[in-house]
Design brief:
The protein has 269 residues and is of the alpha+beta class. It has helices at residues 7-79, 249-257; strands at residues 89-97, 105-108, 121-123, 128-135, 140-144, 151-156, 162-168, 171-174, 188-191, 203-212, 219-225, 234-238. It has two helices and twelve strands, in the order αββββββββββββα.
Length: 269
């Protein structure tokens, strides 16, 4: 060992035994591969069974939704209500955040040339993200719900209580709510549809804190938007509901009371 006489011998023995070691490792690798295959097959079968159960539940839910939609249509026809609005949408991609560090705004790659209108709602698969506040020819600025200037009318799905949610730093809040208002932690708030902009029923936020102070008549209610805006990449720009609604009564009255244009002077003799 001191004069390193065994190093060449050990190297030669290792070289000779290398093919033998590889051959002996074949059954070990086959055993490990077979066990992994069986475990993977068992896991795949379990996932397939779970997917089948989920598909069956979704099929049952879809059948109920279709039945409720047909019933809703019949009731609307019976009560002579106007049909439900068909909201048109447009896909867009978020380009970058707005340069203003004191606001929560993003820029999307759709603008006036693509048909984007001012005040259009912006949503994703989770819920409402915000609203278009500026429209450029090839892009648009979207103010997110967590912006300090954002406001949206909401509806509590548990008790059908209407209110307004306002943006604050890193979240939202319900303002001017009475201290005894029926609001609980975990309540889901959706769009009410009474503002003529957002379609009704879109998820907006969940109640995370209800602080009923004794020294004031209003409660402090904090919300968390259901659609996180930090990791969003693709969005849908919806047409404002007001574009499909009938004109307001005051607009019709003003148009009816406007004087009719008189005959032009200087006619042909």
């Amino acid at each position: 060992t001191r004069f390193a006489l065994t190093r060449p011998l050990r190297a030669a023995i290792a070289t000779v035994l290398h093919p033998v070691e590889r051959v002996l490792l074949v059954p070990v690798a086959a055993w490990q591969g077979g066990s992994d295959y069986l475990l993977g097959l068992q896991g795949a079968l379990a996932k397939e069974e779970a997917a089948r159960r989920d598909l069956a539940r979704q099929a049952e839910r879809a059948a109920r939704v279709e039945q409720l939609a047909a019933e809703n249509q019949r009731l609307r026809a019976l009560l002579e209500l106007r049909p439900a609005l068909t909201v048109r949408s447009m896909a867009a991609e978020v380009l970058y955040d707005a340069p203003d560090p004191f606001s929560r705004k993003v820029i999307i790659d759709r603008g006036a040339t693509h048909g984007v209108a001012l005040a259009s709602p912006v949503v994703n698969d989770a819920g409402v993200l915000g609203q278009v506040t500026r429209v450029y020819p090839l892009s648009s600025e979207v103010t997110l719900l967590a912006d300090k200037d954002a406001a949206i009318p909401v509806l509590n799905t548990r008790n059908q209580l209407r209110s307004a949610a306002f943006g604050i730093r890193n979240g939202m809040e319900l303002r001017f709510m009475a201290g005894n208002a029926d609001v609980q932690v975990g309540d889901l708030l959706t769009t009410s549809g009474v503002d003529g902009i957002y379609p009704p029923g879109l998820p907006v936020a969940k109640v995370t804190l209800v602080d009923r102070k004794i020294d004031t008549s209003f409660a402090r209610i904090l919300l968390e938007p259901v659609a996180p805006s930090d990791a969003v990449r693709h969005v849908l720009v919806l047409e404002p509901v007001g574009a499909q609604m009938p004109p307001k009564p005051e607009a019709v009255e003003s148009a009816a009371s406007a004087p009719a244009p008189g005959p032009r002077k200087g006619g042909r003799r």
